[in-house]
Amino acid sequence: MCDNEDDLYRERLPNVCGAVGSKARSCCSMRSVHRYLPVTDWLPKYQWNFLAMDLVAGLTVGLTAVPQAIAYGAVANLPPAYGLYSAFMGGFVYILLGTCKDITVGPTAIMSLMVQPYVDGNPAYAVLLCFLSGCIITIMGLLNLGVLMRFISVPVTTGFTLAAALTIATGQVNSLFGISSSANGFLNTWIHFFSHITHVRRNDAILGCSTLVLLLLMRQLKDLPFGIKSVWKYISLARNAVAVLIGILLCYLLKKDGKLPFLVSGSITPGLPPFKPPPFHTEDTTTGEILNFGDMVSHIGSGLATIPLLSILESIAVAKAFSKGKIVDASQEMIALGVSNILSSFFSSMPITGSFSRTAINNASGVRTPLGGAFTGALVLMTLAFLTSTFAYIPKATLAAIIIAAMFFMVEYETIGEIWRAKKRDMLPFLVTVLSCVFWTLEFGMVVGIAFNALFLLYKSMKPQFHLETQKFNGIEVTMADLKGSVDYAAAEYLKMSIVSHVTERNSVGGTAITLVVIKGHEIASIDTTVALNLKSLREDLALLKCDMICWNWSIPAAGVVCRMDRKLRSMFKYSKSFPDLMQTMTNGEPAAVSCIAVDLSQ
């Protein structure tokens, strides 16, 4: 007998009132204050010797953030100033709300490329998308929906990163060689490049390729065995700023009669961005028609889903990579990211997220707290205030080289190798994601990769792991079905079909017919109504085959679902310490195990 007979007929419902009361009490605790406002946790512990390290790290990141921001503005098909407008506010907000000391929030290559299709020559769309994305991300964080990120597997995210790197680097090939191009997409860009290869500008091609080689070589300076290692390290970390400085000097010094030797990024609007609400209406750049908020949202369309999703994915992936053994609070990271986007939109920013390359620089520079972001933001603001006229001389080839060099190291080569060595079947969702993103679009390719990977989960849930073993006990043919793991509604029909087919097949070959099926379910925590109905149907089908069925040592929650559905089915649940004891109870005889035939259905 079951020790808890009454529990079979009494369903334990969650204590909603108790949970709400507990949550309400916890919201008023200091622990919640520290969770939702992390600065209150680390600031009281701040030491003055941290300040110098945060200052150095912040300025080092800023030297990379400025040229990258200008380049990413161009990638998004926006004026270069909008890249800088996006590069400072995130750092200030993350000081208050962020949980990882290393993360730098700002424009990234992936976000810029994702925003590009929605801009349509009008920055208002990018700013509104930044605001709406921030609202969506913040709401998701407050609702504790960070757990949704667990449904996106490593092969999918790795494939997306590779595809994004290929697409972004490809988009800069024409600029690297001085070819004017408005082509978008992987194939279209390469087709345009080879069809216009005779239009290559010699000066731009030499500068672009030389800068690319220089950046790759400077990355290795930190590993030089001679000299002062700390000096080499910071020169290596500031390589983007060095490349920009060289490009500006060459452009200025080689200028003849007012004619520049290279194609340049163009003038950058001087001064700080005005503080104003994001645009909720705009003017159509082609027709001059005034578009209201609804028209703008309709134009953005699927971007309201893909931009927040990828922004969250990129930022949390960076946080996990640099968490150093600490558990990442995904929901709090989403709140920090969402508020960063909302406030940045008031300074004409495009969507922003955590940057892997700048976060790596921040970490390598020895940052101690999120305060380093304040110095990075301050440097960007100083650039906007005083240096915009100088940056008008940045060659496009130099910016293209900076972006392409960054893409080389955005690809997760080690992870790809680990996927291949660990389980080659996981290469399928990886390849599907890569091909879909490269030859379709990044946003839809990501969706295809997630959907394809979900098919693996669905297929696995449709075929529960269980082992069928037929043995003879005191002249009775008994089939034991040993269930492993969970059984849900998707697997219910498969379980029924497998057992009925096995019994039918064994009975059709002659010999002693199977007269008892024992389903062992001690590992099953719970089942749903569909499984319960299929168990009832299975018992009826087996009865027609003159075969009885019992469920042996099922957990109380799982057995209770069946018993509450139909009290008459209580008789099929049996409990005993061992299988011989069970059979002795069923046959009232001595156990005598003989030959057995096993069928493994776990694959």
TrEMBL record:
GO terms for cellular component: membrane. InterPro entries: SLC26A/SulP_dom, SLC26A/SulP_fam, STAS_dom. It comes from the Eukaryota. The chain crosses the membrane at residues 50-75, 82-104, 124-144, 151-169, 234-254, 371-393, 399-416, 428-459. Keywords: Membrane, Transmembrane, Transmembrane helix. It is found in: Membrane. One of its GO terms (biological process) is transmembrane transport. It holds the Pfam family Sulfate_transp. Residues 478-542 form the STAS domain. It is a multi-pass membrane protein. PANTHER family: SULFATE TRANSPORTER. This is STAS domain-containing protein. It comes from Drosophila gunungcola (fruit fly).
